Amino acid sequence: MATFNKPCIHCGAMIDGDSRVCPKCGVRGPLGILCPNCLNTIKRGDVACSSCGRALMTGCPFCKAQTFVGVWKCEACGKPLTIKCPDKRCGQPQFFESTKCTVCGKPIKDGKKQISKVK
Ligand SMILES: [Zn+2]
Ligand SMILES: [Zn+2]
Ligand SMILES: [Zn+2]
Q1: Who surrounds ion ligand 2 at CB < 5 A?
Q2: Cβ proximity of 61 and 81 under 8 Å
Q3: Cα of 2 to ligand 3 centre, how many Å?
Q4: What does residue 71 show for φ and ψ, rounded to 5 degrees?
Q5: What is the pLDDT of residues 93-111, one digit of tens each?
Q6: Nearest in space to 111 (alpha carbons), one of 69, 65, 66, 50
Q7: Model's pTM, two decimal places?
């Protein structure tokens, strides 16, 4: 059976239904709502990740609204809440509050400072 295209939850591009990485924006787990910390599947409406315990709502650094972390962008103002992994060879998009890259494991410092510079 053919796989159907589905929208990436991060950038909205229609991508293959079994993609593990979005070919458009490069985010892992483009079709599921995943904890930005540990990539556990999370549900909208939950208050904390069942695996690592991080809070699933956070204040947007741009508009200060509370937003759900599973979509990696602010639901109020629509700005992406991602930064790039500081490792040059990795450079994968990561959630701005993450302290460790979920791809290469490098520590991420100053994610909150980095995102405040994004225009
Ligand atoms: Zn988690
Ligand atoms: Zn916002
Ligand atoms: Zn990385």
Answers
A1: 60, 62-63, 74, 76-77
A2: yes
A3: 32
A4: -105, -5
A5: 899 999 999 999 999 988 8
A6: 69
A7: 0.80
